Each structure stands twice: as C-alpha cells, then as structure tokens.
Amino acid sequence: MTGFGSGEHAVAPRGKLIVELRALNHRFLEVRVRASRELAEIATHAELAARERFSRGRLEIVLRGEGLATIPPQLDRERAAAAYKELAALRDIIAPNEPVPMSLLSVVPDLFVAHEGECVGMRDALKHAFEKAAVDLDAMRAHEGKTLGRELGERGARVTALLGDVESRAPEALATAQKRLRERVSRLTASAEGAVDPARLEQEIAILADRSDVAEEIARLRSHCEQLAKLLSADGPVGRRIDFLLQEMSREANTIGSKSADVAIARAVVELKVEIERMREQSQNVE
C-alpha cells in the first residue's frame, strides 16, 4: 500500500535527524535508502530497521540532518600502519631502496572512521525518528487498507453469489447433457444396423456425469471465499496468503468452466474469473 511518513529526533547539541518514508505498491519488499554524506554511516541501520518493520512494498527512506555538528573522523592508526608496512614490503620486492610516499595511503579505503560516540548518538536518533515516521506511514496505509479491504470483501461476496448461481444451475446442466447424449445415441442407433448395448450406454452416461460434476470445485471455491473473508478481517500481514488463496480460486473457476458445457454456467464462470482477477490485481497492494 502507498503512504508517506515523517519523523525527527534531536541530536546534541542543536541538530536533529529527519527520517522520511515513502511506500509504493510492490509484490515483495524492496528498500532503498538515500542519505547525505554525513549520515552514510547509519544508512545500513535504516535499511535493517525497515526490513524488520515492513514485509511488503517498495520503500524509499530519506535521511536528512539539520544543524548537525559532526565530529571529524578519526584515523585508524593500526590499519594505516599495517597498510604502510605492506606497501614497504612490496617496494622491497619490486624496487628496493625507493621511497614509499605517504600519499599512497590516501587510496587505502576505510582508514578514517567516524567517532564511536557520534555513531551511537546517531543510531539512537535514527531509532526514534524512524519509529515516528513508521507510525505516521502506518496510519496512512491503514486508512487505504480499510478502503481496499471493503472492495475486496465486496468482490468476494460477488464471487459467492455467482457461485450460488452455478450451484443451482449445475443439476439441470448435467441432466441436459445426459439427455443430449441419449438423443445422440438414439439417432446413431436408428441409422445403424445394430443396437447399442443399454449397459454400455448407462456406463457412458455415468462417465459423463462424473466428468461434468462440479460439486467438489464449488465446495472448494466456497471454502476459499470463506477463508478470504477471514483474512480480510485478520490482523498482521496477510497479502501473500491472499495471493495464494486467489490463485487457488482462479484454478477452481477454470476447472468449473472446462467441465461444464452449459451456457449459463459458462457466463457465470466468465464473471467469476473477472472478479477473481480484479481481486488478484488489488491484492498486490495488500501487505
């Protein structure tokens, strides 16, 4: 679901950290963090916080600082000394007695690290600001979720109603198919020299009835509708379960359509598939 949330937290002595969250619909969870250079150290922590809090959606996190008095980074002397020692050893192998310029250390990554006390303070500020932004975002997404839940519920009720039409029509459709088979056999028998074995005819009619029976599919589809209604009123992330349930509903609807040659049932199945497909599209927005 879409939404926007913003939160901020004070950072000593006079600055503050601002966190903005922008969520868009997405089938899976995708997190992207945008942070200024002075906040790069906490960008990873922001992504981890998002993955712990959210389970679905394309989430963009923006980290901004106002009035932050950053402490200059510290030189990791042990790392620098070890790097220089390795450079000197390489010099002894390829160019003995040549000087090793100190400027070579400038290309060695991670020699300067942020002050530990500052990192702890920024991570603490991030924790509080992120939580405020997440609560703000959840409030907006909850409002959209209620609207989306009502729409899915209405479509689910429509599927149940169409299923009732199919169920009431099924016995008559089956009887009609059996009648047509008998009439067809009678015409073939009248134009042929030999008679058809009545036992074999009844066997074929029984096979037709079994292949045309959609009672099991109707029962499963009705059960799926009931499960959908329960999921729509459940707490917590249900999007992936709704996705799976709608896939199963679509499969049952296709089976009903392939088993029955009745025109009325075929029309109802088309409407069933349309409603289910619309729900599948909307379910991509459900966390």
Summarize this structure as a short list of keywords or feature phrases.
elongated, two-stranded antiparallel ribbon, 63% helix, alpha+beta, 287 residues
Task: Tell me about this structure.
It is a single chain. Helices cover about 65% and strands about 15% of the residues. β3, α1 and β4 (about 55-65) form a beta-alpha-beta unit. The protein has about 290 residues and is of the alpha+beta class. The chain is elongated, with a radius of gyration of 34 Å. It has helices spanning about 45-55, 75-95, 115-190, 200-210, 215-230, 240-260, 265-285; strands spanning about 5-10, 15-25, 30-35, 55-65, 75, 110-115.
Please report which band the strand proportion falls in: under 5%, 5-15%, 15-25%, 25-35%, 35-45% or over 45%. Answer: 5-15%
Question: How many whole angstroms does the radius of gyration measure?
Answer: 34 Å
Side by side, the strands of the main sheet go: 1-2-4-3
Shape estimate: elongated
The major pleated sheet works out as: 4 strands, mixed
Number of helices: 7
Unreliably modeled segments: none
The helix content, as a percent range, equals 55-70%
- The overall pLDDT average reads 81
> Could you give the count of β-strands?
6
SS class? alpha+beta
Order of helices and strands: EEEHEEHEHHHHH
The N- to C-terminal Cα distance equals 7 Å
SSE layout:
Blueprint lengths: L2 E9 L3 E10 L4 E7 L7 H11 L3 E10 L7 E2 L1 H18 L17 E2 L2 H76 L6 H15 L2 H18 L6 H21 L3 H21 L4
Parallel strand pairs: 3-4
Antiparallel strand pairs: 1-2, 2-4, 5-6
Helix pairs in contact: 1-3, 3-4, 3-5, 3-7, 5-6, 6-7
